[in-house]
Amino acid sequence: MKKLLLLLICILISVQTFAQNPEIYEDWHLHNLIINGENHIPNHLAQALICTFRNEVGVDYFYFPNDNYIEAFLVDYAPSNDTFILLFYIAYQLGICSNQACLDFFVIYSPFYYSYAETEMNYEIIHNSNDSKTLIVTNIDGDQAIYNTEPLVLSIDENSLVTFIVFPNPVSETLFITSENLPIENLTVYNLSGQTVLIENQKVEELNVSSLSAGLYFIEITSEVGKQIQKFVKH
Fold first, then answer.
1. Which domains occur in the chain, in start order?
2. What Pfam families does the record point to (predicted)?
3. What residues have CB less than 8 Å from 51, skipping those under 6 apart?
């Protein structure tokens, strides 16, 4: 009986390991995110957004940069086509996406995977003339994340260098926002799922967050030169 059980486990691991296209095991640099037909190109500081598919000891993982740490998801591949399902995340480690630009992009990028966990995602790998490869991941709503084995090269946007200060952090009741002599027009707070939970367009130098549940949030600060996102923790 034990030998039969061991044989079944070995067969399952073998199917799990070889059912998918082995070319997916790469470090993939995000080049474009298409949500509802709109293109979202990572800016110059968000190039640290690298996804990685790995097979370790017969188990498939998907490493996804989540704000300033990297989460590891279990991956289940369909045996007959280029499809995978992300299961629950199992661990995280400190990552390299901890700058302002990554925070700005994270509010858009994260729900692409977190909102579609445990649903089928199709993927296609394309070989390019410059010997690089392109990975296109499509969720059930038709949104797409487009990656390449080569990093995306973009110019620096000086507006992204404007600094806002958000304090205290962590916060219990009132969050204060200051800037370098730059008027703030609007404040919007998002939760980890990308949902809007607070909006303030009147008294924009402070925000009452006492109604929020404890956890990590993102505040989008709109000024005359554009938008910037900071993170804060609600006690």
1. 22-148 (2.40.128), 165-234 (2.60.40.1930)
2. Por_Secre_tail (PF18962)
3. 27, 28, 30, 62, 63, 64, 65, 147
Residue 19 φ then ψ, to 5°: -70, -35
CB-based contact 137:145 (threshold 8 Å): yes
| Per-residue pLDDT at 184 exceeds 80 | yes
Side chain identity, residue 121: M
Torsion angle of C-alpha atoms 12, 125, 89, 231, degrees rounded to 10: 180
Intra-chain end-to-end CA distance of the chain, in Å:
53
> Do 222 and 184 meet the contact criterion of CB atoms below 8 Å apart?
yes
Burial class (CB in 10 A: 0-12, 13-18, 19+), 74: middle
Is the whole model's pTM more than 0.85, yes or no?
no
Q: Tokens in use for 191?
A: 């939760």
